[in-house]
Structures are given as C-alpha cells and as structure tokens.
Write a structure and sequence with these properties.
With 105 residues, the protein is α+β, with helices and mostly antiparallel strands. It has a domain of 58 residues. The protein has three helices and two strands, in the order H-H-H-E-E. Strands 1-2 form a two-stranded antiparallel ribbon. A hairpin with a 3-residue loop joins strand 1 and strand 2. The longest helix is centred in the first third of the chain and has 19 residues. The termini are far apart.
Length: 105
C-alpha cells in the first residue's frame, strides 16, 4: 500500500487526538481518597536548629542541615559533617535521623 504525504501525517494525528480524548477520564489511585497526601511523615524536619527557627533560615542554611530545607546549602560544607538527631514528637512518636556529608575536592 502506497501512502501519500497527507495520509502519512494524518494517521498519527488522529491517533494522538483519540488518545488525548480517552486520557482525560483516567485517574490513579482510589477516587474516594483524592486530594490526600501520602507519606506526610517525610515532611517533618529532623534537624534541631532549622526546626527550632521554624524554617526562617531556609536561604542561609549551610552544611548538612541543608539536606532538608535547601539542598544548595550543602555546597558550603567545609569538612566532613556527621549529625545524629533523636526527637520526641507529640506523645509517642520518636524521630531519629542520621546524616553524613563529605566535601569532594
């Protein structure tokens, strides 16, 4: 079968249009739980200094504590840094975090 230049471009365009129309009705997950976030425990800041400041030092945080708030602050690591943090949250929730960073020269 010989296709002319219009038919060669028309078939992929029609296919893309049909797929676009059907993709609007696709949803992921459970529809009754839409709008709910998963793994919200990952949003808790484990480091004491930046957490105690309430996050207002986001632009100036440097070193290993920058891993949670502003990853670009890790560029200011001057030596090897090692941090361990253990926090009691609410009444029976304990958060333990460990961090290690090394400057690469």
């Amino acid at each position: 079968m010989v296709m002319n230049k219009y038919t060669k471009h028309l078939i992929p365009a029609i296919l893309a249009g049909v797929l676009t129309l059907y993709s609007t009705s696709v949803s992921a997950g459970n529809e009754q739980r839409s709008g709910q976030a998963g793994a919200t425990e990952l949003l808790i800041n484990p480091w004491a200094r930046s957490s105690g400041w309430g996050g207002i030092n986001t632009a100036s945080v440097s070193g290993l504590e920058a891993t949670f708030m502003n990853v670009a602050g890790m560029a200011h690591t001057e030596n090897t840094e090692l941090i361990f943090s253990s926090t009691s949250w609410f009444s029976d929730i304990n958060i333990s975090a460990f961090g290690f960073s090394e400057i690469i020269r």
